[in-house]
Amino acid sequence: MEQLVRKAYRHGNVPNAMRAAARAILDEGDAPAVGLREMARRTGVSATAAYRHFASKEELLASVAAEGFQELSAAMETAMKEPDRLLGLGLAYVEFALQKRGLFRLMFGPILAERAKYPPLKQAAAEAFRTFRAAQAAAGHPDEDEHDALAAWGLIHGLSSLFIDGLVPHERIESMAKEIIGNASLQVS
Fold first, then answer.
1. % helix / strand / coil in the chain, to the nearest 5?
2. Is the distance from CB of 64 to CB of 104 less than 8 angstroms?
3. Do residues 139 and 85 lie in contact, with contact meaning Cβ atoms separated by under 8 Å?
4. Measured between alpha carbons, how far is residue 48 from residues 5, 37, 63 in Å?
């Protein structure tokens, strides 16, 4: 079976395969193990082939984080179809964090502070924030300034971080998220 995987990757799918391997490691909770040589080994290509697609481990991680922000934006856009758009968006954000813990931690880790070095990451993170702002506008809060938007984002992000770090009992996450986010979205003016 490994031979089939190797053959597929040699036909132009190396970057996608490496991102998938990195995400698998992140999902296992072993972020330090993500490296170009390890990703090459896991995808069945040479280290030289890996370096043809990514100049460094950080570039690979930035690519994975950009992919994560695109997925988060898509989840938030889907949630904007809910009757209470801000509650739906907040719950979608929390769900994303819970389902993709390693990716979520990567996206908002040190690589985000370096986003200016990685234009796709910078663009994807900015788009996620624009999606969040669009949800606020669609929910009837179009004139909120950036500080209010960051405060709302901070609340949802903070809750998500508390949940994925296990600081809230798992059985209380859903009800707590609905209550806190629901109360906060009613308070926004």
1. 80, 0, 20
2. no
3. yes
4. 18, 9, 18
Q: Render pLDDT for 82-140 as a digit per residue (tens, 0 to 9).
A: 788 888 889 999 999 999 999 999 999 999 999 999 999 999 999 999 988 887 777 66
Main-chain dihedrals φ then ψ at residue 44, nearest 5 degrees? 80, 30
> Which residue do the tokens 């950080």 mark?
58
Q: Please provide the size of the chain in residues.
A: 189
b/e map of 2-22 (b: 16 or more CB within 10 Å)? Answer: eeeeeeebeeeebbebbbebb
pTM of the model: 0.84
Neighbouring residues of 106: CB distance < 8 A, sequence distance ≥ 6 = 26, 31, 61, 64, 65, 68
Work out the percent of the chain whose per-residue pLDDT is above 70. Answer: 87
CA angle, 167 as apex, 129 and 158 as ends, to 5°? Answer: 15
